[in-house]
Design brief:
With about 240 residues, the chain is of the alpha+beta class. It is about 15% helix and about 35% strand. It starts with 11 loop residues before the first strand and ends with a strand. Bound molecules: manganese (II) ion. Manganese (II) ion binds next to loops.
C-alpha cells in the first residue's frame, strides 16, 4: 500500500530550551469563555458546563523563543481579535476521568493566541451556524514553545497578559478561570477520548479587541514565556 499523494506534514511544536525536541500534535481543542470578570464568587453548582470547539492541528504556527512572528492579516475578515490563552499539552490517554486524575495527563504548557475572525464568528452565532470560519482558519493559532510540566510544575495561578504596541489589553490570572485546567480536562474527557498529542486552549481573560496591520503583540503566560507577533498587510 502507498499513499496516492504526499502525506501532510505532522503538526508539531518545539519543546522549550532549543533541545531540538518536537511535540507532535494530534488535535487542538479550545474552551469557550472561561474567565470570570471578577474574582470567582460562584459555587460549583452555579457554573455553566464549559463548551468546546476545535481548530485543525495545521492551524498552529509555532514561534521559537525570542522570535517575533510576521503575521499577514488573514483573508475574509475586517475584525481580527486576539485572545491570549494558556495551552495545555496532553501526554497520556484519558477517557471519563476525574479532575483528581486530570493533571496526570499533562505533558506541558505553552502560551498561544486564539486568533478569531470576530465578524465571521458573530455571523455564525447569529445564524446558529458552526464557528469554524471564525475560529479554525489557516494560521489561526500562533503558539510558543512547550514547557514540560516536570519543569514548571502544575500551573494553577499566575499572570496571563497581552499587550498591543506596548499598551496592556488583557491582564488576567490563571486563578480566575471559571473551570480550572483539571476540570477542563475532566469535562473534555467525558466528550472525547483524549490522547497523547492533543492540545487544549483554555480560554482567555477579558480585554479581547481588534488588531490590524502594523500592530505588534506580546502575549505572556507566567513561566511559559512570551509570544511576539507583528501583523502585516494582507498578503
Ligand atoms: Mn479563545
Amino acid at each position: 500500500m502507498a499513499y496516492v499523494i504526499a502525506p501532510p506534514a505532522q503538526a508539531a511544536i518545539p519543546v522549550a530550551g532549543n533541545t531540538g525536541d518536537l511535540f507532535p500534535v494530534r488535535r487542538v481543542w479550545c474552551v469557550g469563555r472561561n474567565y470570570a470578570a471578577h474574582a470567582r464568587e460562584m459555587g460549583a453548582d452555579d457554573r455553566e458546563p464549559p463548551f468546546f470547539f476545535a481548530k485543525p492541528a495545521d492551524a498552529l504556527v509555532p514561534v521559537a523563543e525570542g522570535d517575533e512572528l510576521t503575521y499577514p492579516y488573514p483573508v475574509a475578515t475586517n475584525d481580527l481579535h486576539h485572545e491570549v490563552e494558556l495551552v495545555v499539552a496532553i501526554g497520556k490517554p484519558g477517557f471519563n476521568i476525574s479532575p483528581e486524575q486530570a493533571n496526570d495527563l499533562i505533558w506541558g504548557y505553552a502560551v498561544g493566541i486564539d486568533l478569531t475572525r470576530r465578524d465571521r464568528q458573530a455571523e455564525a452565532k447569529k445564524g446558529g451556524k458552526p464557528w469554524e470560519m471564525g475560529k479554525a482558519f489557516d494560521r489561526s493559532a500562533p503558539i510558543g514553545p512547550l514547557y514540560p510540566v516536570s519543569e514548571t510544575g502544575t500551573l494553577e495561578a499566575g499572570g496571563i497578559t497581552l499587550s498591543v504596541n506596548g499598551t496592556p489589553r488583557q491582564q488576567g490570572n490563571l486563578a480566575d478561570m471559571i473551570w480550572p485546567v483539571a476540570d477542563i480536562i475532566a469535562q473534555l474527557s467525558q466528550m472525547v477520548e483524549l490522547a497523547p498529542g492533543d492540545l487544549i486552549f483554555t480560554g482567555t481573560p477579558e480585554g479581547v479587541a481588534a488588531i490590524g496591520p502594523g500592530d505588534r503583540l506580546e502575549a505572556s503566560v507566567g513561566p511559559v514565556g512570551t509570544l511576539k507577533l507583528a501583523v502585516t498587510t494582507r498578503s
